[in-house]
Amino acid sequence: MSDLKEQLKANLDEAEWDWLVPHAQRDAIIVVTDGLDILDVGEAIASDNLPAVQNWIDEQLLTKPTPEQLGNWNSDRAKRFNALIVEPYVLIQEKTAS
Questions:
Q1: Which Pfam families match (predicted)?
Q2: Distance between CA atoms of residues 37 and 26, nearest Å
């Protein structure tokens, strides 16, 4: 694992939607689809790997939250996510109920 990825792994945390709302309000949330490793995405963004990031965007694996998602999350503010801050963004991945 690269040093950058190790550093990002240390910053990976679980967050409730309530904590993420201010980031959503400043349009800084990026939703990472379940099939992607949030650390891989964070590493690509942090290291300016534009081809990889653009590819994920093109394939809709990285998206901004939809109004429907925001509505659902606002009505369940205890909803949990894996969250990773990669300035100026906050990457989130919905945690599935286990």
A1: DUF2288
A2: 24
Other beta carbons less than 10 A from residue 76's beta carbon: 12
One digit per residue, pLDDT tens: the chain, 98 residues?
A: 789 999 999 999 999 999 999 999 999 999 999 999 999 999 999 999 999 999 999 999 999 999 999 999 999 989 999 999 999 999 999 987 65
Cβ(14)–Cβ(83) below 8 Å: yes
**What's the maximum distance between 2 C-alpha atoms anywhere in the chain?**
38
Domain that holds residue 61: 3-94
3-class DSSP state of 83: strand
Contact 82, 93 (CB under 8 A): yes
pTM for this prediction: 0.93
Number of domains in the chain: 1
Beta bridge partners of 94: 81
